[in-house]
Amino acid sequence: MASRPTTPPMTATNRQTALRYAFALAVLPALLAAGLWIAPLSVDHWSYHLQFLIALATTAWCVRLVFRSSYPRPLIVALAASLAMWTLGGATLLVQIDWQHSLVDMTNYTYLLFVGYGIPLLYVAATYGDPHPSRLQRAMDALLLTLLGLLYWLSIVDKLDAHGSISADGLWYAQHALDAVNVFMALAHTIRWLTADSAATRRFFRITSVFLLGYAACIGIHNHFDMQDVGVGFISRLGDVLPPLPFVGLALMLHHGRNLPADDDAAGSGVLQRVLPGVGPILFLLAIFAVGVSIDDRHTYQVLSIVGLAMVAYIVRSVQVQYRYLQAQDRLQGMAAALERLSYTDALTDLPNRRAFDRAFAREWASAMRTPQSMSLLMIDIDRFKDYNDLYGHQAGDHCLRAVARLIAGTLHRPSDFCGRYGGEEFVILLPATPLQGAEVVAGRIIERIHTANLPHRQGIDGRVTVSIGVSERHAIDLHADALLERADRNLYRAKGFGRHRWDAGDSEP
After folding, report:
1. Are 135 and 141 in contact, with CB atoms under 8 Å apart?
2. Which of 12, 195, 288, 410 has the fewest Cβ atoms within 10 Å of its own Cβ atom?
3. Is-contact 470 489, C-beta < 8 A?
4. Residues 184, 284 contacting (CB under 8 angstroms)
5. What's the CA gap between 151 and 154, in Å, rounded?
6. Phi-psi category of 253—alpha, beta or left, where left has phi over 0 and alpha has psi -120 to 50?
């Protein structure tokens, strides 16, 4: 029994690295907590700036990893794009804080950036890893992504007041919609973590899953505390401590795994990997349905149009995937049939090989046992073929085998007759529903045809290539197919013993 891999012991270097990471995660909340203690009423003005700076630094670090890391480039680019959108949303929020001195009213652009930051990450979660994506699939995925963005915009417009800011009635929606988006993103990346088909992909989605789960928790606490009562109570301000932590943790995780070898982590679940091609696109539909249901009835027509178009895009994509799957199945079946033909064909003579004979012999024997019909067998051997190889070489011997094979096969006229190469210079003919007299006629025809072909052989009979044949017929008392084969083989050696260039059926009588 194979032993399970054990986790390597933590070295001094690993302990130092873990301590540095822990210190980096602890120093920020400590600074923010100190700020809350010193200046609880003005902490917003520098806590939001600190959040923005940390997000900006994490974005810059992620952009650097696009060119200097072992992460799959499309994935790290999508992460950088998402962080850039969130950072831009933070920048618009700072404009409100510094110029408009407001935190409750969040403009539509700010809200769209904070909600839509996950669109690039959702796109790679739904589409990355498809082994054979087509242009139509990519086009449908892009369309679904665009429709999701339009629904996000409608959801924002639906909650704006006359001044272009989030209305008081829409504040509850803003809080819970952000929570739903964040949790959905975390679940989508967790699914991809579990279904990753390579170590690098699995490592990336593990990092983003941890980040998004932490982000959903920290931002959720922040939103529910801070968007209700700004500047009221110490507990409510604890929400300001949490938002930077996921970004710091993300930067540290990306730094730790930036140059790990490709085999550093095990592959994901094989069962889930098979499910992924069908589950990935559904993530788009789930997001579109969720956002569409939350939009006010005033935009029912627009929502139904977008959802309907999304369904059409998903159906087109699914039909195209199914069509390509059936094409692949047809190709695989054709390849399997071709491989089967090759496995039953002798490469030198293009006749059926020993394996094909064994299968045909078993089938015909079973059929003969159920009926009173006769069945005959011919074992054919080229006379003095070893001497032929010694005289003319093995390449000439191969040409001789091919010529004899064509001549033997040309003597058979019934589709049910079987002719194949038995091995070496031996050939076999199976004649269903044929008595011994008919088999003797076929044997004489083969000997005559090869003799008259006048294939030169200096040490052969009459200076040409000849064959000897053993003929046998199935007897009623035969219980096993080997009896027929053994008699044909014995009769072949009788023919060779009596001078070659002849057929013999002397041992075929019961």
Report:
1. no
2. 12
3. yes
4. no
5. 5
6. alpha
Q: Does domain 354-504 have CATH number 3.30.70.270?
A: yes
For the range 302-309, what are the long-range contacts, defined as Cβ-Cβ under 8 Å and sequence gap of 24 or more? 302/154, 303/151, 303/154, 306/147, 306/150, 306/151, 306/154, 309/143, 309/147
The one-letter code for the residue type at 275 is: V
CA–CA distance from 70 to each of 18, 225, 246, 363 (Å)? 21, 39, 22, 58
Residue scoring higher pLDDT (359 or 8): 359
Per residue in 465-496, pLDDT tens? 999 999 999 887 877 888 889 999 999 999 99
pLDDT band at 222 (very low <50, low <70, confident <90, very high): confident
Q: List the alpha helices (DSSP H) in 117-198.
A: 119-127, 135-158, 171-195
Please give the radius of gyration of the chain, using alpha carbons only, rounded to the nearest integer: 40
Structural domain spans, the chain: 16-335, 354-504
pLDDT of residue 275: 58
Partner residues linked to 473 by β-bridges: 376
DSSP 338-361: HHHHHHTB-TTT-SB-HHHHHHHH
Let me know: does 470 contact 490? Beta carbons within 8 Å. Answer: yes
- Beta-sheet strand order (sheet of 426-432): 418-423, 426-432, 375-382, 467-473, 503-504
Distance CA 292, CA 349 (A): 68
Contact indicator for 500, 466 with CB cutoff of 8 Å = yes
DSSP state, 281?
Answer: H
**Alpha carbon distances (Å) from 434 to 31, 122, 360, 375, 444:** 99, 71, 15, 5, 15
Nearest residue to 155 via CA among 268, 9, 45, 303: 303
Cα 443 to Cα 431: distance, rounded to the nearest angstrom: 11
Q: What is the pLDDT of residues 249-290, one digit of tens each?
A: 898 888 888 876 655 444 445 555 555 555 666 777 777 877
